[in-house]
């Protein structure tokens, strides 16, 4: 029952459609990790069961070989006893001939018993060999599925990490988008623009004040000239009156 149970479990896991299982999983990576652990546990259990089954088969095979050797040995003993009986019979010693004939019969009976045990063991050996081969095949299939599953898990983990990294890059790019007025760079640019505007305003103010000073100087120069001309005019009139 144990061997059949292990074999059934091996067959079920070996035939499992990994893609279908992953499609139905909420978290494929966690499911694959669990499946790999299950595969490892069941492979270890299957290996122990197969080792025990092989061990039992080897014991039966050893018993079969012992019966086979025993049958051959008893056959040789029967032949030797029969030959000895013939020698005594040829020598006219009927009593000893009968004795060795009886020994030959006993040897033949033992030979037949060993052959019977061999015949009985043959179906069991054949069945056990078939079971061992099926278990080995199922175990190899499980190991292949485990390799496939491990590869899919590694691929999925790599893709997940790549997607996560790409998402981080996208978020970073979005955060520093210079076209976004709400971004840090946008606010910094606005601050620089205001500072530049203030400097231009100050420059214009300074320029305006300087122009006003020059205009005042020009007005003062004109007034001085007017006063000088008026004084000259009066001086001229005074000279004419005195002459």
TrEMBL record:
Keyword ATP-binding: no
UniProt keyword terms in alphabetical order: Coiled coil
Coiled coil region boundaries: 36-63, 132-159
Any single Pfam family the record assigns to this protein: PspA_IM30
The family this protein is said to belong to: Belongs to the PspA/Vipp/IM30 family.
Protein name: PspA/IM30 family protein
Lineage, uppermost ranks: Bacteria, Bacillati, Actinomycetota, Actinomycetes, Micrococcales
